[in-house]
Design a protein that fits this description.
- The structure is a homodimer.
- In chain A, strand 2, helix 4 and strand 3 form a beta-alpha-beta unit.
- Chain A folds into two domains: 94 residues, 60s Ribosomal Protein L30, Chain: A (2-Layer Sandwich), CATH 3.30.1330.30; 155 residues, SPOUT methyltransferase, trefoil knot domain (Alpha/beta knot, 3-Layer(aba) Sandwich).
- In chain A, helix 6 packs parallel to helix 7 and helix 6 packs parallel to helix 11.
- In chain A, the strands form two sheets. A six-stranded parallel sheet of chain A has the order 7-6-5-9-8-10, with helices on both faces. A four-stranded mixed sheet of chain A has the order 1-4-2-3.
- By secondary structure, the first copy, chain A, is α/β, with parallel strands linked by helices.
- Chain A is elongated.
- Chain A has eleven helices and ten strands.
- Chains A and B meet through helix 6 and helix 11 of A and helix 6 and helix 11 of B.
């Protein structure tokens, strides 16, 4: 039972709230009963389960701890309430968390046949939007998300929470725009960009697979250099006073049209 | 120039971060240049503009302050950096905020002809989701959102931020489920519920206006008592491992099908 907030492993977990520590270690944290149960469906990726008996009241939670304790390479830590609260990123923590290894893919490991649909994101800033896009990608059967240049971290706690299970099911690629452009040209994926000022409405074109849907950042939309690489650009009709949608909403609206055309 | 964090008006603004104070006063806070400019398009609703010369560097921001100072009933406060940071809900504040009067509508003030499309939300919990739904409602030309029973506060800072301009353009109604049910029966709006287990896919039915799209909470979806009131229930196809979408994403996917059918 760990009762010191300066325990070495507790300090590591706390540091994982920073992007720097996540990148240095290749680890991230999931919190809560449902998230830990989902992580344990990928036991090879789970490094550690942290449980706080003073906070954890759920039988499902204890069953997850029991399974983790029987797995060969998963470390189980018990902590006091004060220590657990020092590592939790939410209020009212459920008393269970896990440290999980990140998984990144390279464009070269992907294939047109096995990966017919991707979302590429240029400079998306908010982890919550990125996580929500991952969740929608899972729902429409996409392969994953390609993050271009500077982008939010999909392993940020807010992104992990918004993604739900999709943080495990979706492939994540991080690359620079030039490598992406070369790969797209070589592999022949269709690239469709979402852009508020595109004259073509998103329901008025065909989306033959394999394809990639490209979206820009929350503030700026799709930069013209990015748009030049696209085979087509589409916009989403707007009837109100605002001139843009939330980026995760825009992704979902177009992805569901792609799914409707490719059932 | 206010330099004390315990100034009466500064304390009021800080208290407006709590729901209790927002409900007692009927006020809320918008932060940042864009949000204040949008608020000033409704000058009758703006009570106060707070500016921090040490933080505000934007000419557009100062133009907004100048306009506010010339409006008959808007109070302009200047504060020091430390005082402004004590009222800001985000890091790196832009040095401008406004206190705005909330606006609520009653079901009886609405009409089938002027308000052909509503979203009703049963027990939506997260302000960010509520704000994003408001933003999408504006985009599809809906009239507003009807909040049933316990629900997140649309004037929560996170909801206001996510809603953008839609916090002003969309009508907000808060009512209990029984009143809503009576009003729906009396007015003859079609009520379509979104429910993960509905056998009918959202693209397979017609959406004649006037209608209301009803969505349940993030965790629980649509309760059976709510669903019993619906004229139809629709689900959104899912191809992945997850069994649900983010509620703001689900709302957007169905709203854009409604818009496509009612161009």
């Amino acid at each position: 039972m760990i009762s010191s907030k300066s325990n070495k492993q507790i300090k590591l977990i706390r540091r994982l709230q920073t992007r720097k520590a996540r990148e240095e270690t290749g680890l991230f944290v999931v919190e809560g009963i449902q998230a830990v149960v989902e992580a344990l469906a990928y036991p090879d990726r789970v490094e550690m389960v942290v449980v706080c008996p003073d906070l954890l009241t759920s039988a499902i939670g204890y069953e997850a701890v029991r399974r983790a304790a029987h797995a060969p390479d998963i470390h189980v830590l018990e902590t006091t309430g004060a220590v657990f609260e020092s590592i939790a990123s939410r209020e009212h923590p459920q008393g269970i968390a896990a440290v999980v290894r990140q998984q990144w893919h390279h464009l070269e490991q992907t294939g047109r046949a096995s990966d017919p649909l991707w979302v590429a994101l240029d400079a998306v800033q908010y982890p919550g939007n990125l996580g929500t896009i991952l969740r929608t990608c899972d729902a429409v059967g996409a392969s994953g998300v390609i993050l271009l240049d500077a982008a939010a971290d999909p392993y940020h706690p807010t992104a992990v929470r918004a993604a739900r299970n999709a943080i495990f099911t979706q492939k994540l690629v991080h690359t620079d725009f030039d490598s992406f452009a070369h790969w797209k040209q070589r592999t022949g994926y269709q690239l469709v960009g979402a852009s508020g000022d595109a004259p073509c409405a998103y329901r008025d074109i065909a989306y033959p697979l394999p394809m990639i849907l490209l979206l820009g950042s929350e503030g700026e939309g799709l930069a013209s250099q990015r748009r030049a690489l696209c085979d087509a650009a589409v916009s989403i009709p707007m009837r109100g006073r605002s001139d843009s949608l939330n980026v995760a909403v825009a992704a979902a609206v177009i992805l569901y049209e792609i799914l409707a055309q490719n059932p």
